[in-house]
Amino acid sequence: MLQPENQYTKLRWLLTVLGLLLYVVDIWTDVGLALRYFQGKQFVWTGLTLVFVLAGLLVTQIFSYAWYRDDMNDEGKPTISGMSKGGLAVLHLFGMGVFTRYYHLLKKGFKVVWIPTNSYAMEEKIDVHHNLFCLATDLSMLKLFEAFLESVPQLLLQLYIVLGLNESCSVLQYLSMAFSFFNIAWALVDYRRCLRRSLPHVKEMPSGLPTAVYLLYKLCTITSHILSYTLLLILSPYSIIGLTVLWLLGTIWTHVLKTDFCSSRKFEFLYRAVVGVILTFTFFNVKGKDIRLAMIIYYFFYVVINIVAPSLLALIKPELQTAAYLLPVSGLIFGGSVLGLVCLVLYYHQLHPKEKWQEPDEVDGLGKETHTTMRIRNFLQP
To answer: How far apart are alpha carbons 135 and 286 in whole angstroms?
Structure first.
């Protein structure tokens, strides 16, 4: 009998629809905000807003195409019916790669969960559901990339504009920040759950308290970090140099670990640069190894940055001590840091599965490892 944790359910299908809606609305609000800045002749904010949107779209299209191409090489046939590699490239050139993945996942998932059939043998049924989770995991990884290349920087930019420039916050700005935040939260939880369910030799973390604690840990640490970076940018726009250095350190560390995520060397360098961006805001297990020491070092500097940012702003710019935002933002930074670290300790000591990765054997029926299974096995580990 197919275990509940291995089933692609109706709820999972509906949540995929919700994820698609969040993805579309997040991009739509950011584009609308860019148009508003353009109409107000605020060309710098227009450019930066669009750059973040385009960066997320471009990178996700590149990796989506590369993964489709790898899958075609494995199977020897188009992964999208009737489409050649050239047609696949054109599809992604017009930014439709992620939407195509959503379409095929929802179409295949609909046939499985809404039109059930008893024609499948048990092994075939397991394979069908596992394949759906593999498709969902690829999509969730792309959404994670998009969240950290578009939603997170967008949230940082809008906070800087509202807090640092004392501008009144429009409804569109509120919507942009809100949907960016929801998109980040959704990407984190969806990625974690899809990844673990697509790995048959890793125990699935149950929903409920473990998921809530993990989400709280990630959101608190990311939000407090974004607010700290915002205060540093308010202190001096040249703080962007410091953020660039942090990105370079994360990228170099990923390079030192010698990740082997991509089948192509050039894509591997791009992947390492993207991981560097992610590490600027939160911690992930890049190589799937014991990273206790690396995590301790990372969160030590995380705490230092979160203490230094509001302290420097208050000391170097005393005129801002009376600013309406300084006290509540500082409170959110310190409170978020403490709560986030408490949830981190609770999650990894009490709620995170302790069993190690087990290599599949012939009994498991997985056969020869394909680019898809290799790719998922090398995904960032939450």
So the answer is: 21
